[in-house]
Amino acid sequence: MVTLDVLIVAPNDDLHARAVIREVGFLGRHALLVDSADFPEKIVLDYSHDSTESTLSIKTEEGQAYELTRESSVWWRRPRPHSVEQSFYHPKIASFAARESRSFFLGALQAMGGMFVNCPAASDRARLKALQLRVAESLGFKTPRTLLTNDPHKAREFVGARLKKCVYKTFTGTDFGFFETRLADSAEDISELWRLRKCPIILQEHIDGDLDLRATVVGETVFCAAIDFKHGVHGVDSRVDHNPTFAFPLSRPIIDALVGMTRAFGLIYAAIDLRYSEKEGFTFFELNPEGQYLWTEIHGSLPISAALAEMLTRTGAAVRGHSYGDFPRQRLMMHV
């Protein structure tokens, strides 16, 4: 039986998980990727508890056996729902089996007491958009004027006061498509606001700037990449186009604020989106407790996967407070 240093819970095809497993291997440690959708039908878990010790064993579909100890770390990367629907004819029974599976699966992993990145309850709280804005402001970041609403009348007033200077976006992602942040700048957008009675929306003033920033926080280390969003054709959401991306080192005040925001939500890892302007400074957009980083690692030459591996195996200095490089302090004064 192999004793694991790191267990990563993510889809089998998750490239971020694969990158970190590779880095863990370079450190001479053992890591395993487990897809939660494979439990309970393809994976067997045994959790044993008594007054002296607890043990957790995992057996894969191929019959390989692994053991987690109190020294093992877990990266709760992007777990999928437990697949039990095909095993039961009645949906209520299937739902019950899925809840039982999650309770056992997540409870056993957390009961081992090792490093857990991130606590699911903390991640759920950190996803609350209104709360994110309050926390960001408390740490000195500028935030856009924002309206969260399901009232079509209030939405029309907000958009009308900022015509061509207003964007809209969703609270969460979906598993049936990608919905980018868009300008609310057409009569068609206005005419569709009646739909808010069925589903609320986020409306924000459009913030102009020079660069989009994706800051990835690993412990107390911050890796920041800049995206030249104006280079693309979309001009609002930098995720839509293949824009130039490069490392953007930060000053100590910004590092401390980003780490502070992550800690405020009880997180160890976070991906934080900002917009930077030479004139106006930094504007906070949102925090993603399970956000992507791999494209910034590749294009910005940022060793994020290595930092995650070092933190999860406790072999490096990834939890110390620093940024990847230095940046002229006079350009990083936070405008408040």
Assign an overall shape. Answer: globular
CATH architecture of the largest domain: 2-Layer Sandwich
SSE string: EEHEEEEEHEHHEHEEHEEEEHEEHHE
Poorly predicted tracts of residues: 317-336
CA radius of gyration: 22 Å
Look up the CATH topology of the largest domain. Answer: D-amino Acid Aminotransferase, Chain A, domain 1
Helix percentage = 25-40%
The major beta sheet can be summarized as: 6 strands, mixed
Q: What count of domains describes the coordinates?
A: 3
Helix run count: 9
Strand content: 25-35%
Please explain how this structure is put together.
The chain is an alpha/beta fold. The protein folds into three domains: 2-117, no CATH class; 145-205, ATP-grasp fold, A domain (Dna Ligase, domain 1), CATH 3.30.1490; 211-331, ATP-grasp fold, B domain (D-amino Acid Aminotransferase, Chain A, domain 1). 28% of the residues lie in helices and 25% in strands. It has nine helices and 18 strands. The strands form four sheets. Strands 13, 14, 15, 16, 17 and 18 form a six-stranded mixed β-sheet that branches. Strands 1-6-5-4 form a four-stranded mixed β-sheet, covered by helices on one side. Strand 16 (269-277) and strand 17 form a beta hairpin. Helix 1 (15-26) crosses helix 9 (304-313). The longest helix has 21 residues, at 91-111. The chain starts with a strand and ends in a 13-residue tail after the last strand.
